[in-house]
TrEMBL record:
Name recorded for this polypeptide: Metal-dependent hydrolase
Lineage: Bacteria, Bacillati, Bacillota, Bacilli, Lactobacillales
Annotated organism of origin: Streptococcus mitis
MF GO annotations: hydrolase activity; metal ion binding
Domain Metallo-beta-lactamase: 14-233
Cofactor(s), names only, from the UniProt record: Zn(2+)
Length: 250
């Protein structure tokens, strides 16, 4: 059970990965999903006790890209929203990519605690050499809710840093699509109204519950202003519908 007032039932939360094709920079990924080892290796058994993983080997990002005819070396940039296993798990498939972290996520990477659940073995050996650290500290009238970083200096991708589930989660605002991709700021947009009824165990999963609540209030404000929002654990059908609609409007 996650929230008071919701009937106890089995729920599935996809580990969302977003493929973006920038008009000049080419392909970039927002997160990389799980590595299959998280499901099969004994050493990750403690993780699976708290977070049961349902996947096959072909659910890995390397297979999903291959099905689209995209080679790993065609991915030029990878934005890791934060460093939990369902976000960095597939990073090792991209040793030639440039990785992007917010300053806050990088600080956690350098001095992680057990609760941060950072399994660095899923990162490529070239990770630190190919790393860009950004500070979301610019004011932009296009997205007045939070300071952002203009990722490529062309206004196409604004990155906000939001605490809560994890410190400094990178959230992407795409002005051309009026779309916010908001990491793990909530369990799912359909569950957003129940946030303040979160039970004890799911509360303990959050890095900071008070910041988590503030993050969901930020989402509510953005939604009220007509910006479309998807989060990493939204149902696949919802994400696909919104992306399809945005693509056809572009």
């Amino acid at each position: 059970m996650l929230f008071k007032g919701i009937k106890n039932k089995k729920m599935t939360f996809p580990a969302g990965v977003f493929l973006i094709k920038h008009r000049e920079k080419g392909y970039l990924l927002y997160d990389t999903g799980y590595h299959y080892d998280i499901k099969t290796q004994i050493r990750y058994g403690f993780y699976r006790l708290g977070t049961p993983v349902q996947m096959t080997e072909k659910d890995q990002i390397s297979y999903l890209l291959k099905a689209k005819g995209i080679k790993p070396e065609e991915i030029n940039y990878i934005i890791l929203s934060h460093l939990h296993p369902d976000h960095l798990g597939g990073a090792s498939f991209f040793p030639h990519a440039t990785f992007i972290l917010t300053q806050e996520v990088y600080d956690v990477y350098k001095k992680p605690t057990l609760k941060d659940l950072i399994f660095k073995e899923f990162l490529p050996a070239s990770f630190e050499k190919n790393l860009i650290i950004i500070r979301a500290d610019q004011q932009d009238s296009t997205f007045p809710y939070r300071p952002t970083s203009d990722l490529f200096g062309d206004g196409s991708i604004l990155v906000a840093s939001v605490d809560g589930h994890a410190r400094g989660q990178a959230c992407l605002y795409l002005p051309d699509f009026n779309l916010l991709i908001a990491a793990d700021l909530c369990w799912g947009i359909d569950l957003l109204p129940y946030t303040k009824q979160m039970l004890l165990i799911p509360s303990l999963v959050q890095d900071n519950k008070a910041d988590y609540i503030k993050g969901t209030e930020f989402l509510e404000e953005v939604l009220r202003d007509g910006i479309e929002v998807v989060v990493s654990h939204d149902p696949v059908e919802r994400i696909e519908r919104i992306i399809y609609e945005k693509r056809n409007l572009s």
